[in-house]
Write a structure and sequence with these properties.
This protein has 223 residues and is mainly alpha-helical. It has one domain (4-220). Helices cover 69% and strands 7% of the residues. It is built from nine helices and two strands, in the order ααββααααααα. It has a two-stranded antiparallel sheet. A hairpin with a 4-residue loop joins β1 (57-65) and β2 (70-76). The chain is globular. The chain starts with a helix and ends with a helix. The relative contact order is 0.12.
Length: 223
């Protein structure tokens, strides 16, 4: 199946948009059906995966801003494939075990958009594309906290936004720094992670970059 990764990424979002016209009494069944289809697609990816190939597979590459080396560049290896299957399975389980009754239609739509961002993060091979999906995940998370949180949900949502946005900015600085180093060494800009693999960085650079990425990941990962 051509463009299977793009289908995996954007199918939940398209289904989420269509969910606005679904009757609220059918929203739960609709969400479970969409999540089940997404999980089946991820299993198809698994059965089509060539375990003897250690490289990236199902690669899609579409240049977006060539002068800066930014592209829609996605692919999976054995590790990201397993995480994608886990993400789609957990979304399906979440849909099936959902106990809330308040605005369940909006919750279903929000979870579908969240699933899109999760899969997008795991297939991204371009740092900017990764960052876009990473930041987009903030939107459904904030909505879930604000709409279905406890008495202090607004306070919690504001705090969550401030901390995660700050951490993400620090991570973005780290990404731009790596791209700058790559440009200095090669004369071209690139945000492709497969290009960054070729870099040999001094230990002090590695420690600084580890700190930048750790802060960005550690703040949001618990959610």
């Amino acid at each position: 199946m051509d463009n299977i990764l793009s289908i995996l990424v954007f199918f939940p979002a398209i289904a989420g948009l269509l969910g606005f016209v679904v009757d609220k009494d059918s929203a739960r069944a609709y969400g479970i059906s969409v999540a089940a289809i997404e999980f089946i697609l991820s299993l198809w990816l698994w059965f089509s995966f060539d375990a003897s190939n250690a490289g990236m597979q199902f690669v899609e590459l579409i240049p977006l801003i060539p002068d800066f080396g930014i592209a829609y560049y996605v692919g999976v290896d054995g590790i990201s494939l397993f995480i994608i299957i886990m993400a789609t399975l957990m979304t399906l389980i979440g849909m099936m075990s959902m106990s809330i009754t308040k605005d369940i239609k909006n919750m279903i739509i929000t979870l579908l958009f969240l699933e899109m961002t999760m899969v997008g993060v795991f297939v991204a091979l371009d740092a900017i594309i990764f960052y876009v999906f990473w930041e987009l995940s903030l939107v459904p998370m904030l909505y879930i906290i604000g709409a279905w949180g406890g008495p202090l949900r607004v306070y919690a949502a504001v705090k969550f936004f401030l901390y995660t946005f700050t951490g993400s900015l620090i991570m973005l600085v780290g990404m731009l720094f790596v791209a700058y180093i790559y440009h200095n060494l090669t004369g071209v800009w690139s945000f492709a992670l497969t290009d960054w693999y070729t870099l040999v960085l001094p230990v002090d650079y590695q420690l600084w970059l580890f700190a930048a990425f750790f802060v960005g990941f550690a703040i949001k990962v618990p959610m």
